[in-house]
Structures are given as structure tokens and as C-alpha cells.
Amino acid sequence: MPAFDYVALDANGKRQRGILEADSDRLARQQLREKQLIPVEVSESRKKQSGKAEGFSLFQGIGVKDLSLFTRHLATLVQSGIPLEEALHATARQTRHRRLQSVVMSLRSRVLEGHTLADGLRDFPRVFNPVYRSLVASGEQSGDLGQVLDQLADYTENAQQLRSTVVQAMVYPLALTVVAVLVIGVLMVYVVPKVVAQFDHYGQTLPLLTRVLISISEGMAAYWVHFLILLGLLFMAGRWWLRDESRRRRFHKRLLRVPIVGDVILAVDSARMLHTLGILLASGVSLIEAIKVGLGTLNNLHLQEGMAQVANDVREGKSFSFALQQMNEL
After folding, report:
1. 258 three-state secondary structure
2. What's the CA angle centered on 134, arms 114 and 278, to 5 degrees?
């Protein structure tokens, strides 16, 4: 039975939003009328939420924390012996995130239609990444879905902690950079011209570096709007240049060679990739398939290309450690 998102008006004219299950759009509207509601908009959740009927995803607001909480609840219910469709229904009722609730109801509809949970997850690729879908599929095949969901909850929680750690580590240097740029801008636009006025009384030739600094200050004070426009154009040009995958791959390769920045990128991507491999292998996924799925966790295109070559080497019979050593030489 499909799930439908609805917007309706009550007797007082107040808009209400919610989710209900019905066999068709017409029956969903009939249910609303029986509840003394006037339907304004009724749309099937699966088509709307998966992005098939629209050009954008409505689930950009679903964070890792909400997904982890949903997975933990579902794992607990499944491990306690509750049928999957009932566990999904109970989880949907418990969650307060309306969009996530709509997704869970759509998943339940797919399960009631006879599909596996993994099949339902494929309808929402922007919500459930390839790692999540592969782990659920392996859990259903092995008959130990509850334990796999429990591991998935740990995985999403660890991913959230890793992301928070990286963000916290970047906040301080970014804040210092912004403050430094603002201070320099204020000095160049307001302070330096006042200091220059003091030198005009002496009538002496200033050093070259001082004259250059004064010229920059005068230019920034007179053309600061043009300067901001130039920065915006450079930013847009950079984004356009990075649209090409080959150029973006070369840029990512050079990023790995930048001191400190490259080490951070390598450490974060490696930790995420190895953690993903560990979860997948523990769930019974083959090494080659685990590497392919784990590629989606790498943000750096150069590392993605290297790990794809590692998967090919392993398929040809080479050991995983030897393939990694060859990747390190690239």
C-alpha cells in the first residue's frame, strides 16, 4: 500500500501536513474527506521523495544524526523479533522528522508489496548511500538483518563524529583567516590613507615598498566594489573550470601534495574508506564488491581512481596489500 504526503485544510481553514497510506490517490483524498479535511495536495511519497518526479531532492534536510537514530530504532525492533513491516511502521510513528517519516512509510509500502528492504532503499539514493544499501542487502541475504542494522547505526554515528571533528578542526583556522583578511582590508582602506597624509608634509621620496603599499591602498579604497566583483568572477570561473572531471582529478591530485591540507584529506578519506571496508567485509560482502562500494565514501577523485585500480588488481589475483603498495607509488 503506497504512502502519500498530503496538505489539507481543516474546518478552521488551517493547513495541515501529514502522511497516510492508501491504495490510490483517489482513496487517499477520500480518507482525508472522512476526517473532515479538505485535500489541497496529495502526492505519492515514493515518487516525490526519490526525486523521480522532480528535479531536486526533498531530503537534503535529513542529516546523519536522524538517519542514525532511525537505523538504531529499526535495528532494535528487528532484533526483538518484530516483523520488518511492523518495525518500519513503528519507527515511522516514532520519528519526528516529517520527511524521514515519509521515506520510512514508502519503504514499508515496498516491503508490503513483496520487495526486499534493499529494493526499497534503492528508490532513495539521495537518502541512503551505496554503503547503506549494500549492507542492508547483505544482511537480508545472510538472514541477520538486525545485527547488520546495528552495525549500520554505529557506522553512521561514527561518520557523524568524524565529520564533526573535521569541522571543529577547520573552524579555528578559517575564523582566523577571515578575521585577518578583514583587518588587512580595514587597514588598507581606512588606516593607511590617514598615515600617508602625514608623509605629504615632508615632500620626500618614499621607499618603493611603501609606494606600492600606498598604491594598493588607494586602489582598494577607490575600486573596492570592482575588487569584490572580480573575486566573485574568479570564484565562478574556478567552479566552471572544476566541472570537467579530468581537470578536477588533476586538482585533487595536487591537493594531496599541499602540506598539511593533503595530509588531512588523506587521513580523513582513508579512515572513512577503511572503516567502510571493515563493516562490509564483516557483513559478508566480498572484497572486490566492498572496495567498489567504498569508493563512494572517498571525496578525492585521485584516491577514487587509485582504489578502482586496486579493485581491478585484486580481481586479477593480486593481494590487497600489494595492490595498495602499487597505488602508493602513483
Report:
1. coil
2. 145
Which three cell numbers mark 303? 584516491
pTM of the model: 0.60
Using alpha carbons only, what angle is made at residue 115 by residues 109 and 121, rounded to the nearest 5 degrees? 75
- 122: how many CB neighbours lie within 10 A of its CB? 16
Q: What is the pLDDT of residues 108-138, one digit of tens each?
A: 888 888 888 888 888 888 888 887 888 888 7
Is the four-CA dihedral 231, 234, 239, 240 of positive or negative sign?
positive
State the DSSP string of 30-41.
Answer: HHHHHTT-EEEE
Tell me which long-range contacts 258-263 makes (C-beta under 8 A, separation of at least 24). Answer: none
> Left if phi > 0, otherwise alpha if psi is -120 to 50, otherwise beta: which for 42?
beta
* DSSP letters for 32-99: HHHTT-EEEEEEEHHHHHHTSSSSS-S-TT--HHHHHHHHHHHHHHHHTT--HHHHHHHHHHH---HH
Extended beta strands in the chain, E state? 3-9, 15-21, 38-44
Strand 3-9 and strand 15-21: the pairing is: antiparallel
List the grid coordinates of 25. Answer: 490517490
Q: Can you say whether residue 92 is alpha, beta or left, with left for phi > 0 and alpha for psi between -120 and 50 degrees?
A: alpha
Torsion sign across C-alpha atoms 90, 96, 99, 100: negative
Tens of pLDDT, residues 140-155? 877 778 888 888 888 8
